[in-house]
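Now for a concrete sample entry.
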Amino acid sequence: MMEPIEKVRAAHKVLAEFRYTPPKVQRGYAGQTLYVNVSDNTIAAKPVNDEMKRTFTGGRGFGLWLLWNAVRGTTRWSDPQNEVILSSGPLGGTTSYPGAGKSIVVSLSPLTGSVVDSNVGGYFGPLLKFAGWDAIEVQGQADQEVIVLVDGNQGLVQIIAAPQEEMDSYALPQQLVELFADKPEERVGITSVSTGPGAEHVLMGCLNVSFYDPRRQFVRLKQAGRGGIGTVLRHKKVKALVVKYLGVKGDSNAPADWAELTRVGSHMQREIHDQDPIMNDMRGGGTTMLTSIMNDFDLLPVHNFRFGSHPNAQRLYKKEFKPYFSEGIPNGCWYGCTLACASCVERLQLKTGPLKGQWVHVDGPEYETVAGVGSNCGIFDAHAVLEINFYCDMYSIDTISFGTATAFAMECYEAGVLNRQRTGGLDLHFGNEETALELLHQMARGEGFGVTVGQGIRRMKQLFAAQFGADPHFLQDIGMECKGLEFSEYVSKESVAQQGGYGLANKGPQHDEAWLIFMDAVTKQIPTFEDKAEALHFFPMFRTWFGLNGLCKLPWNDVEPADNKKKNAPRTAARVPEHVSNYIRLFRAVTGREDVKEPEDLIRMSEAVYNFQRVFNLKMGYGSREHDAIPYRSMGPVTAEEYESRAERYDQQLRDVVGMDPSGMTTALKMAALRAYREKRYESLVDAVYKRRGWTPDGIPTLETVRRLGVDFPDVVELIQKHKKP
C-alpha cells in the first residue's frame, strides 16, 4: 500500500535548485539543453548552436554528441561519467502530424559496453522541449534516492531527495502525478521517466516513460527497452525524471510555415483514417496483428529461434488479445496521432507475484513482446504473455531481452547444459510459463537463477562454458545476441538482408534500423547483393532520420496511400515515396530549412549521425568487422532437428543454390555444406554493405566519408587514423 501523498511530499528535501526563463521554442528548437549531475548536484544550461543543429539535427544526434563529449573510451556503464540523455527533436511535439511524440534515449549500455540508443513514445520528450530544453543529460551517481523535476511553467529545475516514493514503475508514475499536480486538470501535464526493482539487479533494465490518460484516469507507460538504459538510471539512484508543462498548443513548435504544416498533416490524418482499417488495423490492436503474418510465413521465433512457426501460435493472434483491450477510447501516446496503436488492457487479474489476485492495467502487448516472451519461449497463452508484459514493465525489464534470454536458457536446459541443480530447482522446459514468471520475480528480488538470466546471453555463454563445461561453439551458435544485445523477434534464416540488418546495426540486433525480412524473404524485391546493400543503406538511414526528429516510423510505411503499389516500382514502393515527400514538407514547414529538398537530403542528415555513432563504437573498443558477427542460428539450422523440420527446403537449396546433390548424405554432412555456403554469403553481404556505406573492409568509416558528412572532428579523425590498416 502506498504511503499518503502528504507524508511522501513532507519527506522531500531540495538538494539543488536552478531557475530559468523558459525560452520560446522557435522552429522546433528550444535552443538549449539541460545538464544535471546528481553526484555534486550541479544544474546548468548548455546552448544549442546552429552547427549542432545542422550536423546532429536533434534526438539521437543530440544524445550522441552530448555523450561523446561526456565520456572517454575507458568509461564503463556504471561509472559516474556515463550519462542518460533524452531528447525529442525539432518535429517532436507536433500535434498536427501523426506519430510526433517519440524521443530517443542514449547511454553506454550495460549489455554491450558501447553506446546504445532506444526510442520511446509518451509525453516526456515533447513536454521537456516545451518546458525549454531540447535534451536533458543526467550524469553522476547520487548518494541517496533522488527525483529530478523540471517545471516548465515555473522555470524551475530541482534535484529532490525522495526517500518515500514507491520503487516500481506501476505505482511510482501514478504517485508522481499526484505529487506534482496542484489540481486534477494538471495531471495531463506531468510525465516521468522511471525504473523499477528489476533494473537494479539485471543488465537489461528498461525505462518507463509515462503519460496520463484522462479518459481512463490513470497513468500509462511506454518503454525505452533496449540496451539496459534503465539499469544505468537505477544505478545512479535516480527514482525518476519528472517534467511538468501545461499549455501544449498546435503551434507550440512555432513552425516556420504553419499553413504548410497544416496541409501536409491534414492529408496524412485523412489517409490514416481511411487506410489503417483495411491495412494493418493498428487502432484495433497495435502490432499484435504481426503474429499471424509471421507465423504464416515461417518467420515467427519458436523455441529460441529454432523454428519459424507453430500450430499453437494462433493462441497468440490478435483475436486472442482483442477481448482484453478496451475499445472506443483513443490510444495515441501523443496528441493528434490518429494511428493510435498504443492498445491498453484496463483489467487483468494477476496469477503470480507480489500483486497476485489484484486487477491491474497493462499497456500492450506489442508484437515483440508476444513473440519474445510467448512463442520464442514456447508459451502460447495470451494471459501469461500479458502477465509477463505487466511485470516486465513494473520491474523495468526489457521484454525483448527477457524473452530471448529466457528462450536461450530454456534450450540450454533441454540440451543438458543446465539442470534443476544449476537453476536452483527451476524446470526450464519450453512452455513452462510458471517458471518464466518466477525468473522474472527473482530478477526483481535480486535472487536465484533469474539474476543469471538477467545478465544477458553474452554473459550466460561465458558462465555456462566456464562453470558447467558447456561447448562454447554450441552456445555461440544458439545464443541469439550480437554485440551483447539480444535479437528482436524475427527468424532471419531465409533472409540474408535481415541477417545484415541485425548484424550491422550500430547498437546491436534490433529491427528498428532495417526491417527487410519481408522485402527479402517473402516478396523477393531485393534479389542481388547490390540490391540488398542498397536497402541496407537506405532503410537504416531513413529510420535513423525518424530518431533525429522525434517521429514514430509507423505512419511512414505501415499505412500506405491506396495507390502506392500502382504508382511505384516494387523496389521503391516499400519506401512509400509520397510519405517521404511528406516528411520533406513537414521538416521544411517546421524548421524553415530550405536546403532540404530531396530524399537524398534526409539521407545525408542521417548518414552524418549514423557514421558518427559507428566511430563512437570504435571509441569504446568496438565498431569493427569482428563485432558484426552473428550467431549461426540467425543464418541457418544449428541442430539436426532444425534441419529435418525443413528438410525439403534445405535439400532443395543444396541442389539449386549450392550445386550439391544431397541424396545419400547424412544430415550432419548436409548441415555442414549448407553452413559453409550461408556463412560465406553473409560475409559477401557485409563486404557489399561496407562498400556502399563508404567504410573500409574492416567496417570503419573512411576519412573521405566523415569529411563528406561534416563529422571529421579532430578526435574522430584521430580515431580513424589509429585504426587504419596498412
Summary: The longest helix spans residues 667-693. The chain has three domains: 5-244, 280-486, 496-559+594-722.
